[in-house]
Structure to design on (710 residues):
DNA sequence: GCATTTACCTAAAACGTTTAGGCAAATTAG
DNA sequence: CTAATTTGCCTAAACGTTTTAGGTAAATGC
């Protein structure tokens, strides 16, 4: 810390913030009440539309509040109401998926803001220590991994919880938002089949995430039904380009009859292009290529890569929405909601003739 | 919303959370005090190490608190102390940079957690409406863009603020964490020059971010000093692979004597490989390629691409740290801190002989 | 032996809300 | 015209902390 530090001259004299004296006395509901000549109860009622207040006084109070720039103190409000006004969001810290998670986060933040809620990020070490009270009213868990101890603890808390994708560990969330990745994969496999693929292979993470498990299961089912051989390679959930490439290389070497490749990990497909070229195969000619999770890198790859659009921003928003409905009682615990996803067909699976 | 919804049977009867009756009376500091046979002042002092309490009573109180599973109510604490216990974090919602921002966020969250603080995400529309009190004690602004209205508002708030990279809009942050991207670029240019490059080109965003402005300035200076021709293309700050590729294509077509290409936008370099190949050039042979911001995609590209490691996780942590020092008064407003970055040299800039 | 310090502890007052309950005046019902 | 209700407002009591201002013994200084 502070290896290289400098201080610039400032127009204002430096002042420490912790002892900063409020320049003007904070304007509270009492200030408003006094100025409007009513009691604080009436002021509170007038501002929040509760209780019984004549339209005339209500307008007066609102006017004064506006003029004074009154903003209610959340700590006081939350203390009184036993609420925190924030929801907690947990995501696995998996960098190769940051495209997906970043969109997810912004979706959740957006939805929360619409309801006047804040979003607090939880990672290992935050808000889970028993010595700290969870400063949130509910939890959203994105891609809860079965073997993540933090997820475990969070699921064990008494807070209302919504997961994105099912949780296969102990405990049940109060709400689940999930997408039918299995069906989507089967649609994709059908599409590959229509394009002439007979031997599709799958690169997929292990079953610690419900998403990967569904994809894997759907692949086995689809192949089983048509008597097609299973050709898969397993990679870690947080597989980087290196691991995925290695899996692809192994597939291309060991399975020469391979004619389609589906990579599950986010945007992995794009990093596979060089590997495929190296192996002497041509995407869109003698090898079809697709991904289970769409990403910008896939849309702009050359050739553009077919992928399933899992609409992460909307998923994040849907999770937050569901949590709010649980909090207000307009949804009952145990609810599941399906988040629609769709296949984006691109060049990489349109079979062209070899040039 | 709720297009497809189902409710699963649950072992527990459904209960709405908003009216949930606390099963056991919340254990407060009063409970602890009573059980320990002391006043709540003493209990508070014993638990927080303030005031004068005999070691004996302190141990007693701590024991009781632990046994009862007491966790202090943050709303009450914050109300009393006029603090919120959270810091706000604003980032531009720029998807092509999600690798960088995700690391940045986790770094900040980690540092905040170490200090017992939460991190609340701010986006356009959150916490900025005048009708809402900012529920944070301070702000961290990552890559504040000069033309972002939300950043503008946040800078205008009275809260202590730290930016990552300088802010060129109105108002001064209380602290700045910045990296010497200019010097790093010049190191990179020197390295390219050593490897034989005579005509390095630069793809860089406009000057709305201080980062891009520094990079651009350093390039002009370096070229100016050596009498090397300026060859640049400008792209948007949130340039996706498409825009960057177009810029690269234009460079490769219009500037045939080009022998090195530096792409500023995060991981853009990786998506340039196909474009370069298409243009009939070979990376590492007749064209060197490098990026101003490292990313996983660059390390695993083929060939691996030289890049400047800006260490985003550490940068996020450093910003949060500095903010806490400002909050406690151990740093004075106006402070600047340099965050070290370094060049990762990889294959793409090691000139090989044409095969 | 009296005044003073020290060590430990307590009572009470904030902090800014919301809410339960109450009391007049105004309105309606009978 | 009286009784019951409704309306409009207010008082007071929470919510769970931290902090301020003591208060009582024992220990110390002179």
């Amino acid at each position: 810390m502070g290896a290289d530090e400098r201080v610039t001259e400032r127009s204002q004299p430096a002042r420490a913030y912790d002892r900063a004296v409020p320049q003007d006395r904070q304007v509270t509901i009492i200030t408003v009440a006094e100025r409007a000549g009513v009691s604080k109860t009436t002021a509170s009622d007038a501002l929040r539309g509760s209780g019984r207040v004549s339209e005339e006084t209500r307008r007066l109070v609102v006017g004064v509040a506006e003029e004074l720039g009154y903003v209610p103190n959340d700590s006081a409000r939350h203390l009184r109401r036993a609420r925190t006004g924030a929801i907690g969001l947990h995501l696995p810290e998996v960098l190769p998926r940051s495209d997906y998670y970043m969109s997810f986060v912004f979706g959740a933040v957006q939805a929360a803001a619409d309801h006047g809620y804040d979003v607090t990020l939880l990672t290992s070490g935050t808000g889970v220590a028993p010595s700290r009270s969870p400063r949130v009213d509910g939890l959203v868990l994105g891609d809860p991994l079965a073997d993540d101890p933090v997820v475990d603890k969070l699921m064990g808390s008494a807070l209302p919880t919504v997961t994105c994708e099912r949780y296969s560990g102990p405990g049940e969330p109060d709400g689940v938002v999930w997408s039918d990745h299995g069906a989507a994969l089967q649609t994709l496999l059908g599409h590959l089949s229509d394009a002439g693929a007979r031997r599709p292979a799958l690169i997929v993470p292990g079953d610690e995430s419900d998403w990967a498990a569904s994809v894997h299961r759907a692949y086995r089912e689809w192949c089983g039904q048509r008597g097609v051989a299973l050709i898969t390679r397993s990679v870690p959930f947080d597989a980087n380009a290196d691991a995925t490439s290695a899996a692809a290389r192994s597939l291309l070497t060991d399975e020469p009859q391979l004619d389609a490749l589906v990579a599950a990990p986010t945007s992995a497909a794009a990093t596979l292009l060089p590997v495929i070229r190296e192996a002497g195969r041509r995407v869109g000619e003698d090898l079809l290529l697709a991904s289970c999770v769409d990403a910008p890198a896939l849309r702009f790859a050359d050739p553009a890569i077919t992928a399933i659009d899992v609409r992460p921003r909307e998923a994040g928003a849907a999770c937050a929405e569901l949590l709010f409905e649980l909090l207000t009682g307009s949804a009952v615990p145990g609810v599941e909601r399906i988040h629609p996803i769709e296949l984006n067909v691109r060049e990489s699976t349109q079979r062209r003739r070899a040039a």
Notes: Chain A has a mean pLDDT of 87.
